[in-house]
Amino acid sequence: MFTAVLFGVPLGCLAAYKRGKLLDNIIIVFSTAGIAIPSFLSATLMMYFFSVKLKVLPSLGLNSPSSYIMPVIALALYPTCYIARLMRSSMLDVTGQDYMRTARAKGVSAFKAIFKHALRNAILPVVTYLGPLLAYLMTGSFIVEKIFTIPGLGHEFVSAIPSRDYPLIMGTTIFLATFIIIMNVIVDIAYAFIDPRIKLQ
């Protein structure tokens, strides 16, 4: 999730900053492809090129820091691209507001106006997305865990269904539901710190 936010937010801001130019088109194509490509395909392609052909990254387990690179990229690709598109559309909406036009009329550069003034208001939809994203990363990682032979919660959750392990199914479901509720509460609290117009009651 940290990787998705770290790369998705700047990519969306850059796409909005370079709207209609080559960099914007490249980011749009990349983000659309990243959303369309499933995680099992990107994981398999990375394993083929970096483990089998180039032999620079390990393909199984989590025995070293380099073992985390391919699984993290495979899991973070979709959220990164989704956040980039979300950030771009939100940023373009914010840049059309009156206070942005006033800032530009006062001589503030476009780069400073976007990354300093518009970013705090435009990032709210991304913060909203982070709550469900964590649940997606924990349950939707089953295929990536299977490909890279990683023992994780997603594998336990899915394998419990055909084996009819009802206590494990109920336990993981309650755990994930609780996690989503906690994340949504944290997101709501974070709103007040990001946008001063929102007050905590």
3D architecture notes:
With 201 residues, the protein is mostly helical. It has ten helices and no strands. The model has no long low-confidence stretch (mean pLDDT 82).
Structure keywords:
201 residues, mainly alpha
CA distance, first residue to last residue: 29 Å
Low-confidence stretches: none
What is the structural class? mainly alpha
Main beta-sheet strand count, sense and barrel state: none
Question: How is the topology of this model organized?
Answer:
Layout: H1 2-17, H2 22-36, H3 39-53, H4 69-95, H5 98-105, H6 110-122, H7 124-139, H8 142-147, H9 153-159, H10 166-194
Summarize the structure.
With 201 residues, the protein is mainly α. 76% of the residues lie in helices and 0% in strands.
